[in-house]
Amino acid sequence: MQFSRVKRTATLLIAWAFLAGVAHAQDAWGLPDFSATQISQAPASVPQMGPLRIYKSGMRYRTERDPGQAVIWLPASDKVYNLLQNGASCMELPLNNAPLMSSPLQQPADTKIERKVVGHETMEGHPCTVEEVTLAAPDGKTMQAKVWAATDLKGFPVKIEALRSPTFIFRDIKLETPDAALFQPPSKCPPLEKIKPKTLSPHPPKPSRPPDK
User: Fold this and answer.
1) What is residue 46's three-state secondary structure?
2) What is the pLDDT of residues 120-151, one digit of tens each?
3) Which residues contact residue 170 at a Cβ distance below 8 angstroms, ignoring those fewer than 6 apart?
4) The pTM is what?
5) Can you give the pLDDT at residue 195?
6) Which one, of 95, 91, 101, 161, lies nearest residue 128 by Cα?
7) Is pLDDT of 7 > 70?
8) Which end of the chain is less packed: N or C, by CB atoms within 10 Å?
9) Is 126 within 8 Å of 156 (Cβ atoms)?
10) What whole-number distance in Å separates Cα of residue 159 and Cα of residue 147?
């Protein structure tokens, strides 16, 4: 079940993936500290994803999709922590070996973003500047998106559209620093290379043969 959800997440976010390579900071948008709920709207032919809760403090991110599960991104230490069962199970990963980002808001600091204002609309109850945005990765790859930036939320994107990607809506936005405890991984969180998966023999052991009489 968990693998299936991760696979679906990777499929839906693949259009944004090339911009989230090895990076020591995720702040290309220049967003303030915040918490928000991300809603993904994908075509009916694509498996739908549930809401994603996002927290940002400085360069740190925390994302939560399923109850009891979270991912903590700590670029300053080049670490990502995958938490399961409310932190009872935890795995540490190097940032360059982490899963795909969970949100288009998580863009590396060396991603260049160019904006062009094309209109003004009300979106999700917020007055917005509508922008055509070009994101350019350090390797030269680019991506175009349409962004609704809320003028009453310091330009926070409340909607992002791009080709070959879901439409992202952001709600319950609070422009305040989340609790520091949200970005603190459990004290016992082994690195991936130290976790030994349980192995099962492909063939069950043969029953012992009774001694000959």
Assistant:
1) coil
2) 999 999 999 999 999 898 888 888 999 999 99
3) 36, 37, 38, 39, 105, 124, 156, 157, 158, 159
4) 0.78
5) 63
6) 161
7) no
8) C
9) no
10) 6
